[in-house]
Each structure stands twice: as C-alpha cells, then as structure tokens.
Specification:
Chains A, B: It holds the Pfam family ABM. The structure is a homodimer. Chain A is an alpha+beta fold. Chain A has a single domain, classed as Alpha-Beta Plaits, CATH 3.30.70. Chain A has three helices and four strands; from the N terminus they run E-H-E-E-H-H-E. The first copy, chain A, has a four-stranded antiparallel beta sheet with strand order 2-3-1-4. The longest helix of chain A is centred in the N-terminal third of the chain and has 16 residues.
C-alpha cells in the first residue's frame, strides 16, 4: 500500500478556472482500475490550497496514473494557474 | 465532515522512543466515539516525518479529541523529541 499527499497552490483569482479541471481529474482517476482512493480537499484557511489524499497498491500503479491521458492533459492545464510549485509526499503505513 | 493532516518532525535518533507513544495515541484515539478515521503514515524519504490523516464529523469532535486524556498526556511526550514544530491543515471536501 502506498499513501500519497499531493498539494497544489493556486492563485486566488484562478480557482474558478481550475475547479472543473480538478473535477475531471478526480472523476477520471477514480475510474483507473488500480486506484484505491483519490480524494481532493481544500484548506479551510486558503481556498487556493488543494490537497489530494491518494491510495495506490504500489509505486507502479502511481506511475501508471502519472502516465494516464487525463493526468498528462489536465495537470499541465492546472499548473498554469499555480502561485508556487506543488509538493507531494509518498508514505508507508506506520508500523509499531 | 472535517479532514485533518497533522505532520510531526522527529529527531532521527528518537524514532524508537516515539513509536510506542504514537501506537498508543492511534489506538486510544480510534476508540473515541466521534473518531471517523485516524491513520498514521511515515514519509518514505524521512523516517522521522510522521503524518496523521484524520477524519472527524466536525470541529467540536476534533476539539474534544485535543482535550482527551490520551492526547494531553501523549502529545507533549512526543513533542519532546521534535526536531521542529509540527504542522496541521484543516480541510473541507472539494466541491465542484
């Protein structure tokens, strides 16, 4: 299991432009056969701070997602409206 | 619904000390009646970077968690071993 947090920082006046792009990205990604979870959230203190919480079976599944038609088409369109570069963290479940 | 990401940054030589404290915090928090999800992950690139992904019905439930005996006892014990202050984000679900 691979958990991912991916954060985007969008210019405040561009939120209306990216919203349908994010909606399509979520819808299409959830249709990927290897997608376990792909949920998008918005920071309560910053409406341009978008946070994906994702779950994939493994790194190969994430890499396939990043090669998908919808990812390669939509992510560059979203990134035109960034105010700074996004971040991501790949994580394993905590094991005590 | 309230989604929370809380990140802790622990000194590398203290990971063994905080691990049982995190394990108890997760176990006790999941027993709280209002806890929907409370999952802990570790950054694949930084074994001292611990990331909670939480879900609560509302802010009052999160506040009650922060007032719980286990939170008030364990979090200060964990924080003794921080290398820098933790961060948190409170989020709403994305609505297209």
């Amino acid at each position: 299991m691979l958990k991912v947090i991916a954060e985007d920082f969008i210019k405040p006046d561009r939120i209306g432009i990216v919203t349908p792009l994010y909606a399509e990205l979520v819808e299409k990604t959830r249709q990927e056969p290897l997608c376990i979870a792909y949920d998008l959230f918005v920071d309560q203190k910053d409406a341009g701070h978008f946070v994906f919480i994702e779950e994939w079976p493994d790194r190969a599944a994430l890499d396939a997602h990043c090669r998908s038609e919808h990812f390669r088409r939509l992510v560059p369109l979203i990134n035109r409206h960034q105010r700074r570069e996004g971040t991501f963290i790949l994580m394993d479940a905590f094991a005590s």
